[in-house]
Fold this sequence. Notes:
By secondary structure, the protein is α/β, with parallel strands linked by helices. Helices cover about 35% and strands about 15% of the residues. It has helices at about 5-10, 30-40, 50-60, 75-85, 100-105, 125-130, 155-165, 220-230; strands at about 70, 90-95, 110-115, 135-140, 170-175, 195-200, 215-220. α7 links the parallel β4 (about 135-140) and β5.
Amino acid sequence: YSEEIQKQIAKEDRKFLDFSANINPLGMPAGVRLAVMEALDKAEHYPDPESRKLKHALAEYHEVPEEALICGNGGADLIYRLAYGTKPAHALLTAPTFLEYEEALKQVGPKIHIYEMQPDYRVREDILEQMTEEMDVKFLCNPNNPTGILVEQELLLRILERAESRSILLVLDECFLDFTGQEERSLIQKTTEYKYLFILKSFTKMYAMPGIRLGYGICGDGALLRKMET
């Protein structure tokens, strides 16, 4: 809970269930907690701005090149850096979805196009019709936040192909994919083949550590990553 909500709970003497943050209910793993405690002695020094040690570990885990990785202060930080790094004229979003995509895009002023996921909040084949050549970037959350619904894998691959053929950067948010137990759906390995694919990942949700801002992205477009890092 935020401090404000905690005060309200204490005032009303009631019990609340918080569904807003989607954090692993098992809490922070013991290994993460221990690593944080052991790292406190190093907190008096500035961290490596290139996150080289973390990139090396992530590259080994995901079997991708280190140069395809970028680290940030949570996934939200990278969403804003993507917006400023691409400065799109046209962007395509699904609705409903994570609000941060739209909030970041509004800061750079593109025309935002909306694909309404009605009536059952699923992405359907007709989304391909909105992926026109004028689009510069498409944000897609899989599974979607807040609905938790996965995009059908065959359709997801068709979306990827359409994005690549029309030079649309597909920002695929996989921050909640670990919760599904279907990590084989990840398109991380596709980043070595497709230039217009950016995978967004975060430690926040699965490892229950929102107070430690740590997210990362995977992309084969080195020029884009350099823009985001400057």
